């Protein structure tokens, strides 16, 4: 089984950078915080780009 993308909600500040960069994977959820809505919605390059854009580095890979 491969890795999957996740968001550390405790660290998220709701900047929406991940949603703008990779909207097929991320969306804004409760409390105006980002959430993963479709972990298979885009390739790893798009997800990695969203990770790089995140100012608080709250997007992580989980095994």
TrEMBL record:
Domain of life: Bacteria
Entry-linked Pfam families: Fer4_13 (PF13370)
Keyword S-adenosyl-L-methionine included in the entry's annotation: no
Keywords attached to this entry: Electron transport, Iron, Iron-sulfur, Metal-binding, Transport
PROSITE patterns (alphabetical): 4FE4S_FER_1 (PS00198), 4FE4S_FER_2 (PS51379)
GO MF term set: electron transfer activity; iron ion binding; iron-sulfur cluster binding
Residue ranges constituting the 4Fe-4S ferredoxin-type domain according to the UniProt record: 3-31
Role played: Ferredoxins are iron-sulfur proteins that transfer electrons in a wide variety of metabolic reactions.
Name used for this protein in its record: Ferredoxin
Organism of origin: Maridesulfovibrio salexigens (strain ATCC 14822 / DSM 2638 / NCIMB 8403 / VKM B-1763)
Classification of source organism: Bacteria, Pseudomonadati, Thermodesulfobacteriota, Desulfovibrionia, Desulfovibrionales
